[in-house]
Each structure stands twice: as C-alpha cells, then as structure tokens.
Design brief:
The protein is an alpha/beta fold. The chain contains eight helices and seven strands. The chain has one domain: NAD(P)-binding Rossmann-like Domain (Rossmann fold). Helix 1 packs across helix 8, helix 3 packs parallel to helix 4 and helix 4 runs parallel beside helix 5.
C-alpha cells in the first residue's frame, strides 16, 4: 500500500513561514515531499536553509498580508515556480493584548485584517487558481482554542479565530463539490514569539500549565503533523474539520 501521507510533487503555500508554527509546518510538509512556497514580510532564510539542507525545495515570496493587493501575485508566483498549487496553509497572524475597555481601533483592525480577512481573500485567490487548473487541493487554516473559548485581553484575536472556524466550515460546504478540502487546526498554548508574554510571566505560565493535561506547553512541531495529515490524501474525506491540538486543554 502506498503512503497515504506522501506529498511528493505537491506545491504547498505556507504563510507566516519565517518562524514558529508556520516554519514547523513548512519543514514537515517538505519532509513529506512537498515543494514549499513560504510567504512572509520578514526573512525566511532560516526556513529555506532548514528545508534545503534536508533535500527539499523552497521558494520565498515576500509580502505583507495585511492588505489584499499581493494575493493574486502570491498565487501566480507559486504556480509559476511549482507548475501548479495544491495546498494552502493560512498561518500568518498577529495578536494584540489589552483590556477591552481600552482596546484601540488600530489593534482591532490589525488583527482582523491579517487573522481573518486575509484568510478569506487568499483562500479565494487560491481556489480560483485551483478551479482554473481543474485539480483538487487542500486549504488548512490555523484557528485556535479561542475559536471555542473567549480568552482574556485579546478581543480582536478571539473574534478573528472564531471567525476562522466559521469561515472554514462555510468554505468547506462551498468548495467540497469543487474538489477543495477546507479544514483547520486549532492549536492550544504553544511556545512561540506571540505567546512570550504568557510563558515568560511566571504566574500566567503556572496557571496555564495547571490546566494542560499533557503537563507542558506545545511546541511548533506538535502542530506540524496535523498539517501533514490535512494536506495529504489521508484527509480526503475531511471537510470543515477543526482539528484541535492542545495537549488536552479543551478536554479539561
């Protein structure tokens, strides 16, 4: 039996591929055989080095995803480099923290634009290309445990991630007949630059750890296997799935 997780020959676009979860997903997809198009507004040279040193192929597209103007270019650049597009991982995101009584419009808009609006419009550009190719494809959105919970001090992030969950389900319904699987991963608390204010705060760190049955924070690599699954033919019958990878946080 052939390997149902094999991504050989696939072209996968991963946004936010410079660090953290995006970098880990890009590495894992490359290890499974995919050629990777990384998208970020910051340097992805470390990601490139990690992938190419392991025998993979990587192409970088520098872009700011806070506005939709670059989206068509990203898809066309990926298709031109790889010959087609097969997988899109909407990982790029930002978080802003403040008391809701003081939360600014700027912090609201920055998060919603990147964490939600960009997910839809980049998926739209990707799906249009896939339909034109006449092929099947996989879209993987990065949601959050806050897609199910409220959280504290992150109103725009909680709203965006709840929106990602809803959008994932809607697009799954719309695009399944077109051969496009749309699913999401909901990470729990992972050690990344974005969560440093939490894990670097002794009291918050202790409170978070006390609720995680696994007894530790997640690492970016803990999320990567879920992405390989959802990108592969092993997930061909998954549509609108939100795969929680949280060390048991939501089960507690």
């Amino acid at each position: 039996m052939s390997n149902i997780f094999d991504l050989e020959g696939k072209v996968a676009i991963v946004t936010g591929a410079s660090t953290g979860i995006g970098q880990a997903i890009a590495r894992a997809l490359a290890t499974a055989g995919a050629r990777i198009v990384g998208v970020s507004r910051s340097s992805m040279e470390l990601t490139r080095q990690q992938i190419e040193d392991s025998g993979g192929a990587f192409s970088a597209v520098m872009a700011d995803l806070s506005a939709i103007e670059p989206f068509e270019h990203i898809i066309e650049a990926a298709a031109s480099w790889g010959g087609a597009v097969d997988v899109l991982v909407n990982n790029a995101g930002v978080i802003r923290r403040d008391d809701p009584l003081n939360f600014s419009e700027r912090d609201w808009d920055e998060v919603i634009n990147l964490d939600l609006k960009a997910v839809f419009f980049l998926s739209q550009a990707f799906a249009r290309r896939v339909v034109a190719q006449g092929s099947s494809a996989k879209i993987i959105n990065i949601a959050s445990v806050l897609s199910f919970q409220g959280g504290i001090r992150v109103p725009s992030y909680a709203a965006a991630k709840a929106g990602v969950a809803g959008l994932t389900r809607l697009l799954a319904c719309e695009w399944a007949p077109k051969g496009i699987n749309v699913n999401a991963i909901a990470p729990g608390y992972c050690v990344t630059d974005a969560t440093e204010p939490l894990w670097a705060d002794a009291a918050r760190n202790e409170a978070i750890l006390a609720r995680i049955p696994a007894g530790r924070w997640g690492q970016p690599d803990d999320i990567a296997g879920a992405a390989v699954f959802l990108a592969s033919r092993a997930a061909d019958y998954c549509h609108g799935t939100i795969l929680v990878v949280d060390g048991g946080w939501l089960a507690r």
